[in-house]
């Protein structure tokens, strides 16, 4: 499957080029509406487009490989000028699959109904009233930990630790670490630091009823679950992983330096 940003012209043009190359090589290419089984999703766009495609890949249990046509493109494997080489390598099957931990979220409403989602990057519990903070309490493994007023709470995977979590001061976690990262968003309280939880931890977030606004749960910034007053939100490590196809076995530290443009000139006398 070739998956591209819906509206950006460079992505549309690149998608047509990739489709033509693959079809000329004898590979069947399907679009996003197809119900046929797929082997790999080639994504053309930024991280948001890759995460959108990852939702399809998650349902079908296949890897994605991204070409960055956006800004940082942290999840992408190649840049636009490397598109030709990527197509050649994909046709020859010259790629490895790296598995990344995901999270499951379950929202239990006061009426007893339950909705669930998954996320490759993060889930964010946010107030629906941007002018007032949400009152949230959270606990781990059945034990209360803290509560405060905040714009929201972000729970990220190691993959998502460089995204929304990082922008609010949360730690960067290497992708081979199995962990949940909890970071408050503009919280008012005595204990508002990020927490790193073990992979078997069960995190529960409660939307306290003594407030006037409901909350929402955003999965990867794209899929929304309502969380009205009195809701309980349960977050755990997912039983399934996101699969990223890689052309080069590059250490995460090198990817971090490249994508963020970190200063390393003094390292070992460079």
UniProtKB/TrEMBL annotation:
Cofactors (names): a divalent metal cation
Please write the reaction equations for the catalytic activity of this protein: NAD(+) + ATP = ADP + NADP(+) + H(+)
Q: List, alphabetically, the Pfam families matched.
A: NAD_kinase, NAD_kinase_C
Q: What NCBIfam families does the entry give?
A: PRK03372.1 (NF002892)
UniProt cross-references to Gene3D superfamilies, sorted A to Z: Probable inorganic polyphosphate/atp-NAD kinase, domain 1, Probable inorganic polyphosphate/atp-NAD kinase, domain 2
Q: Write out the function statement from the record.
A: Involved in the regulation of the intracellular balance of NAD and NADP, and is a key enzyme in the biosynthesis of NADP. Catalyzes specifically the phosphorylation on 2'-hydroxyl of the adenosine moiety of NAD to yield NADP.
Underlying gene: nadK
Q: What is the lineage of its organism?
A: Bacteria, Bacillati, Actinomycetota, Actinomycetes, Actinomycetales
Supply the name of the protein.
NAD kinase
InterPro entries named among the record's database cross-references: ATP-NAD_kinase_N, ATP-NAD_kinase_PpnK-typ_C, NAD/diacylglycerol_kinase_sf, NADK
> A single GO BP annotation from the record?
NADP+ biosynthetic process
User: Which residues does the record give as NAD(+) binding sites?
Assistant: 47-48, 121-122, 132, 151, 162-167, 186
**What does the record give under GO molecular function?**
ATP binding; metal ion binding; NAD binding; NAD+ kinase activity
Q: Enzyme class, one word? A: transferase
């Amino acid at each position: 499957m070739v998956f591209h940003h819906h509206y950006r012209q460079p992505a549309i043009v690149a998608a047509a080029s990739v489709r033509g190359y693959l079809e000329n090589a004898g590979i069947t290419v399907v679009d996003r509406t197809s119900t046929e089984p797929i082997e790999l999703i080639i994504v053309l766009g930024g991280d948001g487009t890759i995460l959108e495609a990852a939702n399809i890949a998650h349902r079908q249990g296949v890897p994605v490989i991204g070409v960055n046509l956006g800004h940082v493109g942290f999840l992408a494997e190649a840049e636009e000028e490397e598109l030709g080489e990527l197509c050649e390598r994909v046709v020859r099957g010259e790629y490895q699959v790296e598995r990344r931990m995901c999270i499951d979220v379950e929202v239990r409403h006061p009426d007893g109904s339950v909705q669930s989602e998954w996320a490759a990057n993060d889930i964010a519990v946010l107030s629906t009233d941007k002018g007032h903070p949400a009152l949230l309490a959270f606990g781990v493994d059945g034990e209360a930990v803290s509560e405060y007023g905040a714009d929201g709470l972000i729970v990220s995977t190691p993959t998502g630790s460089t995204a929304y979590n990082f922008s609010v001061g949360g730690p960067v976690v290497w992708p081979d670490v199995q962990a949940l990262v909890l970071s408050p968003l503009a919280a008012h309280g005595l204990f508002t630091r990020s927490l790193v939880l073990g992979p078997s931890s069960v995190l529960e977030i409660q939307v306290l009823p003594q407030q006037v606004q409901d909350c929402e749960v955003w999965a990867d910034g794209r899929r929304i679950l309502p969380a009205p007053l009195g809701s309980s939100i349960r977050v755990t490590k997912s039983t399934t992983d996101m699969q990223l196809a890689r052309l080069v076995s590059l250490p995460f530290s090198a990817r971090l330096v490249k994508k963020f443009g970190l200063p390393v000139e003094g390292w070992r006398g460079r």
